[in-house]
Amino acid sequence: MTAPTADWIVDNPLWAEAKPRLSVLIPFLGDDPARLARELAAQSADIEIVLLDDGGKDGDLAARVAETVQALPCPARFVRLAANVGRAKGRNRLASEARGKHLLFLDADMLPDSETFVADWLAVAGQDAAVAFGGFSFQRTPLDRRFALHRAMALRSDCLPAGQRALNPEKHVFTSNLLVRREVFEAVAFDERFTGWGWEDVEWAMRVARAWPILHPDIPASHLGLDTAPALVAKYRQSAANFARVVEAHPQVVSGYASFKVARLIRRLPARSLLREAARLAALSEALPSGLRAFAMRLYRAGLYAEVV
């Protein structure tokens, strides 16, 4: 299967007449979402699954996904975009294809941590929750030395228990495992001016939090798609412009974040570019302990943000 010249859609036989309670929305670009889709469909027939290939060029992957969709025991749709539209616009497109009252955004490189994952989310949706983030873990993520740095960083800042996440509800929101009531998303969609990687989900949560509560139930999914240290460096470079957009839009909220405070301190330093480069080299050094490398990578990220605050 070659890359499409126009968007195309594949529905399975159960799609047309379905009235799902929950729409599970899974974007992907290079990752194979088939295993995730099969596991979710096996847990409940009260959902529909919508998958979106965001302009990927892998025709064999697209063919496998289309075949998987046809065989799923729940309503399913596969949308393949002819061109990449990015994280924010792609998720907005997914929401436009969904029919459930509640939308559950999941990244393609996630897997549910329990056999009651879908049932637990259906229960939260049954309570008519506006927004809820279930958290993520590494419970099902294989150990791999190449990803030790990313694992160490995420365990410290991202894989947090529900009670801790609830202390700063808008800060700890990621589209990797996020439930949204349809009317909320129709009122507040993702800002499509965000490009590249980072911050579009947190910025969205800042806007949502002005009008609706953000819940933090304990319904985690495992994150399988960890990055190497060089990949993290590249992503943080992309994220600086997005961080600047968040600072401009939500200065009072962001001013309380540690990343902002450290960036402002670094900005006062006369040789901040040297500090940033030293931190980058330390983060990339596999000879150093993971904890020290994680500190260096956070310092490098703050050094990048220092240029835009």
Description:
By secondary structure, this protein is α/β, with parallel strands linked by helices. The chain has helices spanning 34-43, 59-71, 87-97, 117-126, 148-157, 162-165, 182-187, 200-208, 229-249, 251-254, 258-267, 272-284, 290-306, and strands at residues 8-11, 22-28, 47-53, 76-80, 102-106, 110-112, 131-133, 136-137, 177-181, 214-215, 221-223. It has 13 helices and 11 strands. An 8-stranded mixed beta sheet has the order 1-4-3-2-5-9-7-10, with helices on both faces. It has 2 domains: 8-226, Spore Coat Polysaccharide Biosynthesis Protein SpsA, Chain A (Alpha-Beta Complex), CATH 3.90.550.10; 233-306, no CATH class. Strand 3, helix 2 and strand 4 (76-80) form a beta-alpha-beta unit. Helix content is 45%, strand content 15%.
How many distinct helices? 13
Which percent band covers the strand fraction? 5-15%
Number of domains: 2
Please give the order of strands in the largest beta sheet: 1-4-3-2-5-9-7-10
Specify the CATH homologous superfamily of the largest domain.
Spore Coat Polysaccharide Biosynthesis Protein SpsA, Chain A
What's the overall average pLDDT, rounded? Answer: 93
Helix content: 40-55%
Elements, N to C (H/E): EEHEHEHEEHEEHHEHHEEHHHHH
DSSP, total strands: 11
- Major pleated sheet: 8 strands, mixed
Task: Give a brief outline of the structure.
It is built from 13 helices and eleven strands.
